[in-house]
């Protein structure tokens, strides 16, 4: 399984994104296009980054009724991204519809992964605000199992949960983990975090890194540090 560092390109314009990525002359990073950039620029930004040779994780976190999600995934699959996602909280019916919508007539499709609980959500908030009265790791494992049973390829989860998800869902089931910070970084709004080196030890398949690279004084050096801690 190809381990990789995915840069979360959380910018509000295509121009800023392309300028940012122009700095990476040696290795073309795998990039994540999230809601901010997609809503600002639309599908053309996906085509532009694809044309520049980047692998793309389209992080739109779909969560709606099965029919709507299935039809939306059919549209997204035409963009030829490498990975896209939805919320596991939408239930198995929604995940199955998504998978069907995403699959092209020739049987190929992008990887489809499910968000379990956002890495910004603490156990306390999940229990008090969402009334999910179980320990957070159990909720993540349960949602992961639902996703696997619906035929998905993996989940988005905290690096701290990647080991348990692999134990429960198998080593081939992908763990894509945001909430990554260097030991000397600001945590920001993330709660369940780990360093790239710790992500490697626990067994994440892909780490998603945003501000630790995009807001660094030297983003290329920060990316290379992630690659050497996580992959090399
Ligand atoms: O800047 P930072 O490294 O915190 O960025 C993390 C990225 O991962 C953001 O783009 C965020 O939307 C995304 N993400 C997350 N937690 C999830 C799913 C996606 O932080 N559960």
Q: What small-molecule ligands were found?
A: cytidine-5'-monophosphate
Per DSSP, what share of the residues sits in E-state strands of 2 or more residues?
15-25%
> What is the rounded Rg?
17 Å
Mean pLDDT: 95
Please report the distance between the alpha carbons of the first and last residues: 14 Å
Structure description:
With 232 residues, the protein is of the alpha/beta class. The chain has an 8-stranded parallel β-barrel, surrounded by 6 helices. The protein is globular, with a radius of gyration of 17 Å. The model has no long low-confidence stretch (mean pLDDT 95). Bound molecules: cytidine-5'-monophosphate (C5P). The site of cytidine-5'-monophosphate (C5P) has 18 residues, from strand 8 and helix 10.
Salient structural properties:
232 residues; alpha/beta; eight-stranded parallel barrel; 11 helices; 44% helix; globular; binds cytidine-5'-monophosphate
Q: Nutshell version of this structure?
A:
With 232 residues, this protein is an alpha/beta fold. The protein has helices at 14-22, 35-41, 44-51, 66-77, 91-102, 123-130, 136-149, 162-169, 196-202, 211-214, 219-230; strands at 4-8, 30-34, 56-62, 83-87, 111-115, 154-156, 174-177, 206-209. 44% of the residues lie in helices and 16% in strands.
């Amino acid at each position: 399984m190809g381990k990789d560092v995915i840069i979360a390109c959380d910018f509000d314009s295509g121009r800023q994104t392309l300028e940012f990525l122009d700095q990476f002359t040696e290795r073309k990073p795998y990039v994540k296009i999230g809601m901010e950039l997609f809503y600002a620029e639309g599908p053309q930004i996906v085509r532009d980054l694809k044309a520049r040779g980047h692998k793309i994780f389209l992080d739109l976190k779909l969560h709606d009724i099965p029919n709507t999600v299935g039809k939306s995934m059919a549209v997204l699959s035409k963009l030829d991204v490498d990975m896209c996602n939805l919320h596991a909280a939408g239930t198995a019916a929604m995940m199955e519809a998504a998978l069907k919508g995403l699959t092209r007539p020739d049987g190929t499709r992008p990887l489809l992964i499910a968000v379990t609980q956002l890495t910004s959500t603490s156990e306390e908030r999940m229990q008090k605000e969402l009334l999910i009265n179980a320990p957070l790791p159990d909720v993540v494992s349960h949602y992961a199992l639902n996703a696997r049973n619906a035929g998905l390829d993996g989940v988005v989860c905290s690096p701290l949960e990647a080991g348990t998800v692999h134990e429960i869902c198998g080593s081939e089931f992908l763990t894509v983990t945001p909430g990554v910070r260097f030991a000397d970084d600001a945590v920001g709004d993330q709660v369940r975090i780990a360093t790239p080196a710790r992500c490697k030890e626990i067994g994440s398949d892909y780490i998603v890194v945003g501000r630790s690279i995009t807001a660094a004084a030297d983003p290329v050096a920060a990316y290379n540090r992630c690659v050497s801690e996580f992959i090399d």
